[in-house]
Amino acid sequence: MIGRLNHVAIAVPDLKAASAQYEQILGAKVGAPQDEPDHGVTVVFIELPNTKVELLYPLGEDSPIQGFLDKNPSGGIHHLCFEVEDIHAARDRLTAEGARVLGSGEPKIGAHGKPVLFLHPKDFNGTLIELEQV
Amino acid sequence: MIGRLNHVAIAVPDLKAASAQYEQILGAKVGAPQDEPDHGVTVVFIELPNTKVELLYPLGEDSPIQGFLDKNPSGGIHHLCFEVEDIHAARDRLTAEGARVLGSGEPKIGAHGKPVLFLHPKDFNGTLIELEQV
């Protein structure tokens, strides 16, 4: 069911400093910051040859990553995103197996404009998993 | 400098249960457990089309991931591994920029039989980064 690892998301306390680290110290290809007001984050994409790292920084009052940064002031790996072909089929398989889908259980349009779901980290070894239909 | 994301490592409290989840619920290609006594871990590789997830479980008395599981009993994402062409050149660049290499600072032979280094997570947004020469 799951396909490619679309991205690894890292919440960071200082987006400019983190971008500079990946560009100058780690020598990666780092994009410009993109505000995603509907998702409460500003995102910087780091393009690797086989996948992406996404640096996440809170945007606005109700950012979904503010609580994570409050608990992890240095930042940390926030979630993994796996690609699926059919998000509804994936959701049905997961819920039939007893895995919990966060929120209403219905896919939402994610930061990349594609349908996504998030799975409860307690059901998956403390790992927040995003599934994205590609 | 950094190339492909070689793997994402997830420390898990129950290797059999985690393997079954990835195989049966997430429908991924999951390998057999491999003991790595020199590294204090038992590893299960999950092959994705573009990279790997490695499930890590403690092996022996001095496993480097036991402390992580003590702090995170449900498990969690433990580290990211990026590929580099020349581990010594990478080390020199990192230390010149003030980043801290864990341990002696000399590359060691990692679980895949290749030279690796780990970078201090406090220097990289709370993310433990492994560099592996490929």
From TrEMBL, chains A, B:
Q: Which Gene3D superfamilies match?
A: 2,3-Dihydroxybiphenyl 1,2-Dioxygenase, domain 1 (3.10.180.10)
The yes or no answer to whether the keyword Coiled coil is present is no
Q: Which InterPro entries match?
A: Glyas_Bleomycin-R_OHBP_Dase, MeMalonyl-CoA_epimerase, MMCE/EMCE_epimerase, VOC_core
The cross-references to CDD domains, in alphabetical order and at most eight, read:
MMCE
Q: Name one GO molecular function term.
A: methylmalonyl-CoA epimerase activity
What EC number(s) does the entry state?
A: 5.1.99.1
Q: Which residues form the VOC domain?
A: 4-134
Q: Which Pfam families match?
A: Glyoxalase_4 (PF13669)
Cite the entry's keywords alphabetically. Isomerase, Metal-binding
Query: What family is this?
Result: Belongs to the methylmalonyl-CoA epimerase family.
Q: What is this protein called?
A: Methylmalonyl-CoA epimerase
Q: Which organism is it from?
A: Paracoccus albicereus
Q: What is the lineage of its organism?
A: Bacteria, Pseudomonadati, Pseudomonadota, Alphaproteobacteria, Rhodobacterales
